[in-house]
């Protein structure tokens, strides 16, 4: 049976070209890619790896992008948090491992935010899962058996910049890749945090209607922080046994 994507290929290609031509090209966040949220005790070291959302596209500075917002949320209990943002616009999981991982500093928690570019590039679920696994294995070789949070692939069917049927096709593909990523939660110290479609309110997008704006990053950071706190707590409990 011929897939719907194959039948619609000419329309999808035309829409993809139009979206690329008309979508505003926003820069990554300005300012340093490391920072410290003041608090008590030795800082908890947070590293965030990923694509344009970790590069901070849609926010003016990293302080109001994903990494800075997540550090603020994790510091709400009064503990200091030192953070590092390692993001590259246009990067897929393999590029992050090859180009950004060598820059990773020692960390107590690593958050990985990927999937949109792998979706756009129509990577298979098998390849995406393998590339994520390679990334996790490689980062743990570099910084030890740290807890890892896999941020869910954003549901691209809710991206307002994408016309139909392109939005529907990429939405279905992003869901397939997210399910593949979720299977890696069977690894010790790894959790997967799906992004609810309801979180993608059109009002939370940046000017390009493709990336989060500051409010979108804030909501995403709140969700990831809740799971990250629990993962860190579980890790500490396990280490004390």
From TrEMBL:
Keywords: Hydrolase. Pfam families: Lipase_GDSL_2 (PF13472). GO terms for molecular function: phosphatidylcholine lysophospholipase activity. InterPro entries: Ester_Hydrolysis_Enzymes (IPR051532), SGNH_hydro (IPR013830), SGNH_hydro_sf (IPR036514). The keyword Ribosomal protein does not apply. Residues 48-219 form the SGNH hydrolase-type esterase domain. PANTHER family: THIOESTERASE 1/PROTEASE 1/LYSOPHOSPHOLIPASE L1, THIOESTERASE 1_PROTEASE 1_LYSOPHOSPHOLIPASE L1. This is SGNH hydrolase. It comes from Amycolatopsis decaplanina DSM 44594.
